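Example A, followed by Example B.
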Amino acid sequence: MLYIISYDLNAPGQNYEPLYDALRDLGARRILASQWAVDRDNTSCRQLYSHLARYVDANDKLLVTAPDNGWWASNGVAQVIRDVTR
């Protein structure tokens, strides 16, 4: 299932490299400046959120979503997530 992870990081000067490392460890790819996508089985939005929430500050914002039908479209994203959309 495809998950979209979005965030607003609101602590200037904060080191968010551990968050980026955690996203890469999940196999996520950055698609916009503050948005990543990951294709994972046997997990949920809540589980991904709980895992990533420990890497952000209390004043940051974190959102994990899953497109309902698996269809998606994009323009000008930083990286291709899948060779072909469903």
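Example B, a separate protein, is given below in the same form.
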Amino acid sequence: MLINSAPGERVFVSWSGGKDSYLALLGAKEKGLTVVSLLSFVGDDGLSRSHGLKTELLRKQAEALGIRLETEAVTWESYEAGFEKAVRRLKKDCDINGGVFGDINLDEHRQWLEKMSLRCGINYNLPLWQMEERAVSEELINRGGRAMLVAIRSDLVDEKWLGRFMDLEYLNYCEEIGISPCGEGGETHTAVLDGPLFQFPISYSIGKIHRLQQHALLEINLQS
């Protein structure tokens, strides 16, 4: 666990809407950091760049967690510039001096965050860093987090898992077929719909399955 910020430091959490960013949020709060904002990067289509979630779902998650959501529209080509722009805006508007990220073991990601944090003049915090991959997903399950599988690599994962919540049966399945139980290789993505810190569960209905090359993406629609 790599935590550079001191207790009480004002931070944002890089928010994908999935289990890793949610667990990073839990870890940050337990280390005494003051989380003042979630930060999500979205495309022109209104979907999150990382998980393909609708912006309205990200906003409902933030509402349920009682934390403001900041979004920044980017392309993959403008991601780095967009990251810097958003962080500098949060420094000015929210007086943050640190960021929290859900990275686990990809060293190139850590190096990029170190570079960008230095450029932006903030601390970077990786509460899940170097956790064993199955342990990450088990942590979510054991703590009562409800993470639905909303995107899969159809060439690697059976589509029957789309729309199901992560559980021990799914983790065992991942190990049987030789993929990461936490999707660290991009095999799956999740959307957290309830758990600790949520003031209410998110009401939803299942929509269409959209296919893009080898990916299958499940549409999640909010219900009032």
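On Example B: The domain at 10-125 is CATH 3.40.50.620 (Rossmann fold).
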